[in-house]
Amino acid sequence: MDRSAKLEQRSSSIYILIKEPLAYTQKVLASTQVLTKKVGPVGGGGGVAKDMNINGISRIVKISIRHGFAIDALTVRYVRDGCEESTELWGGKGGNLTEFNLQASEYITSVTGHISTFNGVFVLRSLKFETNLGSYGPYGKEEGIPFELPAITGQIIGFHARSGVYLDALGVYVKANNTTGGAQGGDGSTTTGKPGTWTQGDGSNFWDRPVSGA
């Protein structure tokens, strides 16, 4: 995937995520607190907003996707406080159903895909899930503008979205890995990461940068 692109706001209801090299350095304080960042969403502005309450979630265990020429729907199964729960169906009931289970030691490190117009609606056309042990997909049709929702130096523990008949847009919750200095109670350390991801947002953190007017 080309890592030399940038985020553009094509209209008030369409947000396109591509990447542009961005060097950043974050000071990690001496703390055992796990930081969680909300990234995205990427895609169209149609449908209804969907979200996961990530409090107490330790890991994702199963992903269910309905897909054909676009991504019709997504369901996420996860562990919260030792018990398994599932989201409702985000999207419609069209397409074919594909499901995959994550191993106990497996976690999602990035979600990639394509977005474009389908049946007159700007939606997700394809999705692929990368993990620390492999990958799942791609599902749907790899057609349109490519995007990536990376976990940077952590793991994806949840999702948020917009959906109606299709899955219009998708975003992720990223749980950052503790640094050695901070986790061990030292004086913290300075972590330099990979190129950052530009998304619609208020610039409150290095994952969430403001969109410039287009």
Provide key terms for this protein:
214 residues, mainly beta, Vitelline Membrane Outer Layer Protein I, subunit A, 2% helix
Give a written overview of the molecule.
The chain is 2% helix and 54% strand. With 214 residues, it is mainly beta. It has a domain at 36-176: Aligned Prism (Vitelline Membrane Outer Layer Protein I, subunit A), CATH 2.100.10.30. It has a 6-stranded antiparallel sheet, with no helix packed on it. Strands 6, 7, 8, 9 and 10 form a 5-stranded antiparallel sheet that branches. The chain has a 4-stranded antiparallel sheet with strand order 13-12-11-14, with no helix packed on it. The longest helix has 4 residues, at 180-183. The protein is globular and about 45 Å long. The relative contact order is 0.27. Residues 181-214 are annotated as: Disordered. InterPro entries: Jacalin-like_lectin_dom (IPR001229), Jacalin-like_lectin_dom_plant (IPR033734), Jacalin-like_lectin_dom_sf (IPR036404).
Secondary structure: elements and pairs:
Layout: E1 8-11, E2 14-16, E3 25-28, E4 36-44, E5 48-51, E6 57-67, E7 71-80, E8 83-86, E9 90-91, E10 96-101, E11 108-118, E12 121-131, E13 135-140, E14 145-150, E15 154-163, E16 167-176, H1 180-183, E17 189-192
Antiparallel strand pairs: 1-2, 2-4, 3-17, 4-16, 5-15, 6-7, 6-10, 7-8, 7-9, 11-12, 11-14, 12-13, 15-16
Report the uncertain regions.
Answer: 1-13, 15-33, 179-214
Q: What's the story with the biggest beta sheet? A: 6 strands, antiparallel
Instruction: Give the CA-CA distance, first to last residue.
Output: 23 Å
Helix content estimate = under 10%
CATH architecture of the domain at 36-176: Aligned Prism
Question: What's the count of strands?
Answer: 17
SS strand fraction: over 45%
Average per-residue pLDDT, rounded, comes to 76
Tally of contiguous helical segments: 1
- Please identify the top-level CATH class of the domain at 36-176: Mainly Beta
Overall spatial form: globular
Q: Round the Cα radius of gyration to an integer and report it.
A: 17 Å
Structural class: mainly beta
Which fold name is given in CATH as the topology of the domain at 36-176?
Vitelline Membrane Outer Layer Protein I, subunit A
Strand order in space, largest sheet? 1-2-4-16-15-5
Pfam families: Jacalin
Biased composition (Polar residues): 189-203
GO molecular function: carbohydrate binding
Keywords: Lectin
